[in-house]
């Protein structure tokens, strides 16, 4: 079964635009779970332009499924996850000023560093996932760090999907199969939407979880949050049920 973890960053972006508490990020998380999502993802950035560190602390008392906290393991980030102890931490090598995540880890170059971070996070009970591009040597190097999972960075898939869905998915299918052989779980995320999700899901039987935020929140403006969450869940049903 492939789980849907909804990234609520963009709900916080809207809230922050006015400085009050509308929309209420914690209530949104509760509702998203009630609508059927199996997890809540947040990616607090150093400038706290959307999810704030305090939101992550508060979510710990609200989320009953799983919290997935994404980010670059800076000292502040590591202090936060040590305090909150989310079910999953996804390591993303983004620069402080990145508009959004724009690269995966070079797990070959940063193998030793990642090994230390992974061990630290696993020692406090977090499942760890490493965000990377679908390249065999990156998957192999990730496996040596002790990580539980990888998260395949799907921006390239999403960009190519409409022109050639088979070419778009081929490297992801190979990377997921390799990860499975190496004993790693497989997550995926970035720019997934109602058009491209079902094909990725059908082609990657190893897929444990997708985290989706930007497109899902955009769709919710037109379709409503409950309906939207259920439409995304439906894309993940074909091989699950
Ligand atoms: C790792 C990843 O792909 C997501 O976390 C994405 O970067 C969302 O972050 P933003 O909401 O800041 O764009
Ligand atoms: N890990 C990916 C994520 O959380 C959401 O990415 P996006 O759907 O906002 O592009």
Can you characterise this structure?
It is built from eleven helices and eight strands. The longest helix has 17 residues. The protein is globular, with a radius of gyration of 17 Å. It has an eight-stranded parallel barrel with strand order 1-2-3-4-5-6-7-8, surrounded by eight helices. It has one domain: Aldolase class I (TIM Barrel, Alpha-Beta Barrel), CATH 3.20.20. The protein is an alpha/beta fold. Helices cover 45% and strands 17% of the residues.
List the helices and strands and how they pair.
Elements: E1 3-7, H1 9-16, H2 25-34, E2 39-42, H3 53-60, E3 67-71, H4 75-84, E4 88-91, H5 111-123, E5 127-132, H6 136-143, E6 149-153, H7 155-161, H8 165-181, E7 185-189, H9 197-203, E8 207-212, H10 214-223, H11 225-235
Parallel strand pairs: 1-2, 1-8, 2-3, 3-4, 4-5, 5-6, 6-7, 7-8
Helix pairs in contact: 6-8, 7-8, 10-11
Tell me the helix content. 40-55%
Rounded to an integer, what's the Rg over CA atoms?
A: 17 Å
CATH architecture: Alpha-Beta Barrel
Order of helices and strands: EHHEHEHEHEHEHHEHEHH
Shape: globular
Strand tally is: 8
